[in-house]
Amino acid sequence: MRFFRIGDKVVSRDKLVDEITAILAEREAGATQEETAKRHSVQRSFVSFLETLGEIRRGARVALIGFPIANCGEVQALAEKHALDFVLVFSQAEREGIESESATEVFNSLLDTLATLRDYDVLVMLASDLRIKTIEKILGREVVGLPLGQSPLREDIIVDVEQLDAVLEGVMAASTEDTVRGRMGTALREAADEIAGRWSASSGRWTSSRKS
Q1: For the CA atoms of the chain, what is the radius of gyration?
Q2: How many angstroms separate the CA atoms of 52 and 191, rounded?
Q3: What is the rounded distance in angstroms from the CA atom of residue 55 to the CA atom of residue 164?
Q4: pLDDT, tens digit, 9 for 90 and up, residues 114-165
Q5: What is the DSSP pairing of strand 9-12 with strand 3-6?
Q6: What global pTM score does this model have?
Q7: Do residues 199 and 206 lie in contact, with contact meaning Cβ atoms separated by under 8 Å?
Q8: Phi, psi of 147 (to 5 degrees)
Q9: Is 185 exposed, middle or buried (0-12, 13-18, 19+ CB in 10 A)?
Q10: Strands 205-208 and 199-202
Q11: Is the model more confident about 164 or about 106?
Q12: Which of 16, 42, 39 is nearest to 29 (CA)?
């Protein structure tokens, strides 16, 4: 435990971290600033100050899922850079591990994931063309699909993180300007479709087919 001596007071860093974590968790759960402030015996302005101090971005709730991906670590790091709200990426080996479970477990896991994804305004999906179309039909909401290749895909694909970074930049910019579900800008959709149209799965790598 880390302590700070400030004049005649001893301050615990761990206590501060625990209190701040509890305050932010309550706000995330839906409590108002006033309600949270009263429960923690602080002023409402203090709660507002904490949120402003720690703010990374504003805008829509954005999720990213992708499979089968070889460089999952790079994709997850990129998602963290853009402060995405939900990330689920896995390799073919991890996918096969899921598929090896009982039919009931797989079905329940699928339902849980779909239920979770319905809470997000925008979904960026890296998968085969067929999987993307299926998710678009099921969720019936804003899906930015980036095909990794034609279905079925049974080998890991290396995602071009520079291209993905550009798409996520566009997604975050559009979602900041308009957070209403189902109203993602047409310019972003056209840009994503244009990039996706140039990508192809070749030798296990997500590559651009456009000639320089």
Answers
A1: 21
A2: 32
A3: 24
A4: 888 888 888 999 999 899 999 988 887 688 888 998 888 889 999 999 989 9
A5: antiparallel
A6: 0.68
A7: yes
A8: -65, 135
A9: middle
A10: antiparallel
A11: 164
A12: 39
Shortest CA distance to 50 belongs to which of 64, 36, 66, 29?
A: 36
> Which residue is listed with tokens 């056209």?
190
Report the distance separating Cα 132 and Cα 144, nearest Å: 9
Residue-averaged pLDDT of the chain: 82
Q: Between vectors from CA 133 to CA 158 and to CA 153, what angle results, nearest 5°?
A: 35
Residue 130, amino acid: L
C-alpha 60 chain-centroid distance: 11
- The residues near 51 (Cβ < 8 Å, ≥ 6 apart) are 24, 27
CA 127 to chain centre: 15
Mean pLDDT of 88-113: 88
Provide the phi-psi class of 20: left if phi over 0, else alpha when psi is between -120 and 50, else beta.
Answer: alpha
Nearest CA-CA partner of 57 in 165, 182, 201, 176: 176
Q: How many CB atoms lie within 10 A of CB 123?
A: 23
The amino acid occupying position 56 is I
| pLDDT > 70 in the chain, percent | 82
